[in-house]
Amino acid sequence: MKFIQSFSLGAACLSVSAVATPPSEPEFVTSERLQNDITEEGLMGNLKRLEDIAYANGGNRAFGFPGYDASVDFIVERLEKLSETTTFFLQDVPGLFTQVASISFAAGGESIPVIGLTYSPSTSAEGLTLPLAHGPTGDVGCTVEGYAGLNVTGKIVLVERGTCPTGGTLAGRLLPAATAGAAAVIIYNNVNASVTGGTLSAPNPEQFVPGGFINRSDGLALVQRLSANETIIASFQQTQLIENKITRNVIAETKGGDPNNVIMIGAHLDSVQAGPGINDDGSGTSLILELFTALNSYQTKNKVRAGWWAAEENGLVGSRYYTAQLDATNVTNLLAYLNFDMVSKGFFGVFDGDGSSHGLAGPAGSDVIEKLFVDDLTSKGLNVTPAIFSGGSDYVSFMENLKKPIGGLFTGTGVDQDPCYHRACDNFENPNATVITINAKTAAHVLANLAIDGATLLPKAAESSNIGRIGEMPIQWTSGEGLEGQDSHTGTCGHDV
């Protein structure tokens, strides 16, 4: 008995000694370590959870709906488990909530599928029944002068979508027609991708008229009839609700790492109203969640921050608000931003950081990020597609306003890449588990390198008095016209404006 007591005392002493020994420091992160920690099971498990959230809350995770709030709760639940190594906060974000309550379009008595343009004014409940007129084509469709000699007053104008110097590809076409006297504007797509939505970027009830968006094939058929001098009577009705609501970004960062050198990763957490949004952008949400979780097992030289953005689908609302609220010190300390929006189905796309493929380069250092992504994917025997900077995702304000190096992955929006893009079928059956896992491991490779060597690899942009404000000379984003699967995310969102 005495022996046992003595052993117990010895065990107790050993236990106290073990507790008193300072824990060993975590190892520094490496590409190999971080990639090994990324699993298909973890990535796909997150996507299943997001699908469950959507179906438990009316079928979507969109801004202004309970599914988005539940998605925030899911991210918070995961981050709370990292409390020893992570801090996080929820950022209230004011945004304009929109919902198309009813919409219809018919020409010559034939019903044609139409999508409401976010922030479009409503018609009356009865709608409009007026002659259909063909607007100007090409660049002249961007100006009211292009309507000289065309009688569009009091008519429904049919015009082709296209890039304009101001107003984007949709508002840039609607506004000149409205100024010329159109009662409503129907925009037909300039590419063959199915129309799933579009935005006018912000309300402008004094200058906008009701607008809708239709598929290219339907638009061209009407153009052909109008060109043959056929008189077509069209009917258009739309009721759109627009109101102010508060939503939330989720921002997390490692407790360790140099706060003067911050690497940020981000993805939008919201879906469109049409479906669960599992590829767009549950895939990016899952990727950065697994990446950030795995990173917390290691030391990094630079601090790493993650952002899950609100209301991207309503015009990049969350990321724009976040960057506008950063003070000069925090902007200076930010080394780079990596964006992951749709990464689970399609081609292996890397943003064209150096501009060598599409002509628009990111800020200095974006070429370095591009090379890190490309080199890792090609080392795995994969073909890389240079992705355009279309102005269609949350990198915009980091690139345009903060002038920070940016990069990221994107798998495409075309029918061949994702036929369920912005549709109800973007559910758990939609993503390709192999594609998201490959992309997540490549993202791990890039993040590990930047978390250790980012301060050496990337230049720091000089402080600017214009930080957080909209620049006087906005970037002319690259059009995806003619580039398969890169039609700038034509959605109810910043995906296409």
UniProtKB/TrEMBL annotation:
GO biological process terms on file: proteolysis
Signal peptide bounds: 1-20
Cofactor field: Zn(2+)
PA domain span: 129-222
Keywords assigned: Hydrolase, Metal-binding, Protease, Signal, Zinc
Domain of life per record: Eukaryota
Entry annotated with the keyword Zinc: yes
Segments forming domain Peptidase M28: 249-446
Pfam families registered for this protein in UniProt: PA, Peptidase_M28
Any GO molecular function: metal ion binding
Broad class of enzyme this protein falls into: hydrolase
Catalytic activity, EC: 3.4.-.-
Gene3D superfamilies the record matches: 3.50.30.30, Zn peptidases
InterPro entries registered for this protein in UniProt: M28_fam (IPR045175), PA_dom_sf (IPR046450), PA_domain (IPR003137), Peptidase_M28 (IPR007484)
Family: Belongs to the peptidase M28 family. M28B subfamily.
Protein name: Peptide hydrolase
Organism: Hymenoscyphus fraxineus
